[in-house]
Automatic annotation (TrEMBL), chains A, B:
SUPFAM superfamilies for the chain: DinB/YfiT-like putative metalloenzymes (SSF109854)
Ranges where the DinB-like domain occurs: 18-155
InterPro entries: DinB-like (IPR024775), DinB/YfiT-like (IPR034660)
Protein name: DinB-like domain-containing protein
Source species: Mucilaginibacter xinganensis
Origin superkingdom: Bacteria
Gene3D superfamilies for this protein: dinb family like domain
Length: 163, 163
């Protein structure tokens, strides 16, 4: 196996591990538990679920490999903090959105060559990339894996059976 | 820059970013805040601080590049859950421990060659490594960066000024 391929496998493994862990936890929650905050006065599970899905929807554009499916979700889940007065999509809608975004990413990743993973992402200029080639698409994926882990650490605090 | 070097930089960047973020948050806490739980009935900040330091102390052995400084901390911070009746080291002692572990790791990492990062870690056999060379030392570092992010997501829930 060539080394470039090993790196890509390692980064995808990190992403896939965190994603699978998130999916396992979210799928253990009752619908009512989605409306619980992770700690008193903090974000609710529904917000973090939509936040991760919308952030990963936008990841296609950050990587420059696709377009967002639901750009209008950015206002609720990315540009604003959780707000229990905001009109949120239903859990059923959000689950569909999550599935769609991640199955699309899965397919896009499968079609991204090793060379393409080491190209610059859309959030930086050619000039900056020339100076620091470690800031490539794969580094965005590593960052997003950490971001999932960060929020898993929070949703795990909620008792899934609570209502 | 060769690709192996780029990937080592990426993984170290991921680790350093999460570590710096953790240090910034822990250093913002008053001594009293270290004794607060991250959510009602959950781990206290002091436990998570000691847990990360002890896990990173053990990381030297997992990577096969050094020995643990305080193996006796494993019982309190790794093998058992948080227990408010347990006798814990003071915050001053834990801060010294944290500094020591991370400055040592920093030096060890600086002296680890790119080739060495791609060797197998001590938690797997030669045979397994032959089958999957992506399970190398660098993959352990990526995993530990995710682990820091997971606990940052929790300690960030505590108001640092609370006492």
């Amino acid at each position: 196996m060539n080394q470039q391929k090993i790196f890509v496998q390692m980064a995808l493994h990190s992403w896939n591990t965190q994603l699978a862990r998130a999916e396992k936890i979210f799928s253990s929650f009752s619908e009512a538990a989605f409306y619980l905050p992770v700690a008193p006065g903090k974000n609710r599970v529904i917000y973090l679920y939509g936040h991760l899905a919308a952030y990963h929807d936008a990841l296609k554009e950050t990587l420059g490999i696709g377009k967002r499916t639901e750009p209008e979700f950015a206002a609720i889940f990315l540009q604003n903090p959780d707000d229990s007065d905001a009109v949120m999509p239903s859990i059923t809608e959000l689950k569909k959105y999550w599935e769609l975004v991640h199955s699309e990413l899965n397919e896009l990743f499968a079609n991204t060559s090793e060379d393409d993973w080491f190209k610059r992402h859309n959030a930086m200029t050619d000039e900056d990339f020339e100076k620091d080639p470690s800031r490539n698409r794969l580094s965005v994926l590593l960052n997003r894996a950490n971001h999932i882990a960060y929020h898993i650490g929070q949703v795990i605090l909620v008792n899934p059976g609570n209502s």
